[in-house]
Specification:
- The protein has helices at about 20-25, 135, 155-170, 180-195, 200-215, 225-230, 235-240, 250-265, 270-280, 285-300, 325-330; strands spanning about 5-10, 30-35, 45-50, 55-60, 65-70, 80-95, 100-105, 110-115, 120-135, 145-150.
- By secondary structure, it is α+β, with helices and mostly antiparallel strands.
- Strand 6 (about 80-95) and strand 7 (about 100-105) form a beta hairpin.
Length: about 325
């Protein structure tokens, strides 16, 4: 019996030095990707995915690159709206989604609705992912959250990750007859996750309010957890819980400053003066100290992403017509 359709693309198969160009050309038909040059390293990325019961399960190794999704221009699933989930085995992904910057790393599960424009910067990442059309799980934007970002220690997140690993391991020899059972299991877990985070979202709203308040304070001078407790009249435990994965309040403040710095660099100009401005606004007394902290956080120098998302769609060729994933690739 025929196996499930397979998708494989490896720029390393192309002539020396042309892999990054081939990668960009391919991804013009899926979304918008731009390989970034890193001093002393060559670009290396590949994807290996399987279409299983209407879902696309993927394994990807990505060099440093931007990746953009736009509902009006996306051609992955013939214009159908979809969600994407990620678990990073290695590396980092910084996603600007629906107005909020997410910093996603290993040990975390992230699910976002791609019908809301998003942009991402991936840093030498090894990723397991799933593309999920809205219709396959009954996703309703009015009821379900636009994103879920949780630690893998959360019960449903761990179950989804375990199931993702099981499906990825089974996919190379999976037949079309076997695929629905695997797909339905994963869909059920996704529905449970969305229901667990569906409205009413009083706890989530509370956490979002806390994070928004802290973000407003981090550039106005020193802010302490006691300040937040007093202003929002919340106990310390509730505040620290709302800040998610950071080991301390001080670490959260530094991480958020660097995340905002990343966004400012990517969407700002390309002038070295802008780098100095961002370093100063982020609270670092010198560009050198800022560069050290930035590279420790993200794995690449801040100069690498200066202006990479400024008018980033302007030079991208939009293919004529729409292309379904199944039609674009040969099984």
């Amino acid at each position: 019996m025929k196996g499930v359709p397979k998708i494989l693309f490896d720029p390393a198969d192309f002539e020396a030095g042309t892999g990054a160009s081939a990668w960009s050309q391919l991804f013009r038909f899926l979304h918008f990707a731009k390989p970034l040059d890193v001093r002393g390293r060559s670009f290396s990325s590949y994807v290996n995915s399987y279409i299983i019961d209407g879902l696309i399960f993927g394994q990807g190794v990505f060099g440093l690159q931007t990746m953009e999704f736009d509902e009006e221009k996306d051609t992955v699933l013939h214009g159908e709206k979809y969600l994407v989930s990620w678990v990073l085995q290695r590396g980092r992904m910084n996603i600007l989604h629906d107005g909020e910057m997410l910093d996603v790393g290993p040990g975390e599960y992230c699910l976002i609705d791609q019908s809301r424009q998003s942009k991402a910067i991936l840093t030498d990442s090894d990723v397991l992912s799933v593309i999920i059309p809205h219709s396959t799980i009954g996703y309703d934007p009015s009821l379900h959250p636009s994103r879920v970002h949780v630690d893998l220690s959360a019960p449903l997140a761990q179950l989804l990750y375990d199931d993702l690993q099981t499906i990825t391991a089974a996919a190379p020899t999976m037949t079309r007859r076997e695929a629905p059972a695997y797909g339905q299991t994963h869909k059920s877990l996704l529905i449970d996750l969305l229901e667990a985070h569906a409205s009413p979202q009083s706890k989530q709203t509370n956490a979002m309010e806390i994070r928004a308040f802290v973000d407003e304070q981090i550039f106005s001078g020193d802010v302490t957890v006691k300040d937040v407790m007093r202003r929002l009249e919340r106990p310390r435990g509730v505040i620290l819980d709302a800040l998610g994965f950071s080991p301390s309040f001080e670490a959260y403040i530094e991480e958020r400053r660097l995340v905002y710095a990343l966004r400012s660099l990517a969407f700002g100009g390309t002038s070295p003066d802008w780098l100095q401005t961002v370093a100063r606004r982020s609270g670092y007394p010198s560009v050198t100290e800022f560069q050290v902290a930035f590279e420790a956080q993200f794995g690449f120098e801040p100069q690498t992403i200066l202006g990479v998302l400024v008018d980033s769609h302007a030079q991208t060729i939009i293919p004529q017509g729409k292309y379904q994933w199944e039609k674009w690739y040969s099984p």
